[in-house]
Structures are given as C-alpha cells and as structure tokens.
Transcriptional regulator, TetR family
Amino acid sequence: MTETLTSQRKAPSQKRAQTTVKRVLEGTLQLLKEQGADAITTRNISKITGVSPGSIYQYFGNKEQILFTLYGERLKDSVGIFKLVSTKENLALPLADFWALLGQALVDVGWGRVEDVELTKAIAESPLVKEAVKPILDELYDGLIYIMRSYGSTWPEEDLKHLAEYAFGINHFGYNLRIRQSGQAADKTLVLTREIEYYLICKAVNETPP
C-alpha cells in the first residue's frame, strides 16, 4: 500500500496535465484551510477545484495519495533547509548562532498555516499516509542527528533519533497551539518552543544552555 501512495498513477507530462495536478493539490490545501481535515473527500476536492473525479483518479488513486503528496512536499522542503544550512562554515559557528540561523530558515518554509495544521491532523488519522511518510521523516531526523554529531554529541544513535523525533513532535505541538492563538500569546509559544528544542540539543551535545 505504501508504494501506491508514493507514486502517482500517471505522471503529468503535458502542461495541461500539470495544471490539473496543481489545481487538485492547491484545492485540497484550500479545503483544509476553509473546512478542515474532516472535509477531505474526492468529491469535495472535485467541487472546490472544478476537476472531475475521473480526472482526479487519473493522477491520484485516492485522497490519501493527495495528502501524501502535499505532506511529503512540505517535509522535503524542511529536509532541503537542513541540508542547505548545515554547511561546514555554518557548523563552525557557536551552537546558539547556528540554531538561530536554522530556525529562521525553517520559518521561511512557512510551517504553521491553518492548512498545515489540518494537513497534519489528516495525516495523523491515516495509518497508510503515516507509514508512507516515514522515510522522509527519517531524512529529517538524520539531518538533526548530523547537526548534533557535528557539535560533538556522543550519544548512541538510537538515543539521538529518539531525541530528534521528540524535538519534531514539540515543534508540531507548538505550531498547532500557535495557530489557535494570536498576538503576544502566539509569540510566547514560539519562544518557548524554540527554547525547549534548543535545551534538548544542548543536552545531547553536553553544552549548557543560556
């Protein structure tokens, strides 16, 4: 079943087909934003995009494959940021400076929108999609593990992966909370989330946090 989700039924080679796929993906995000995860059905995606169910099924076998494509793209953006920022020069910076640099770069990816929160909820409710995104999540965890190793962590690999998963969970909890807040409350949640993540990283590399 994972193989079904990780590859589209038909690759959109022509411009018209590519436009159709883009409409389906963007329409699904709009539906998530306006009506939430529970509204994601092929019929509702068809209504909001104007793309017939038959055309949708040409490129996506089911709604789970659409969700996987959207979530996978978002995760791959984050993996790309980790690789882009984790240069030899940047990793020579003090940990606090590097962490601030990485944090700002991840903000630019745009995580934290209403549709992202609902997308995450939809993923959590689908065992098939959760299983399919594991390899991409592992790339994300590996990126964080690489950073901790670069700053001298001697923890066992299993412990570092556990910490990476936990830090990612804290990040998700933080933006799930922030999206329902506003003003100073949202700002405080962001600060606390970053402080907790940084504390954990410092612990793994035997560095005392400020």
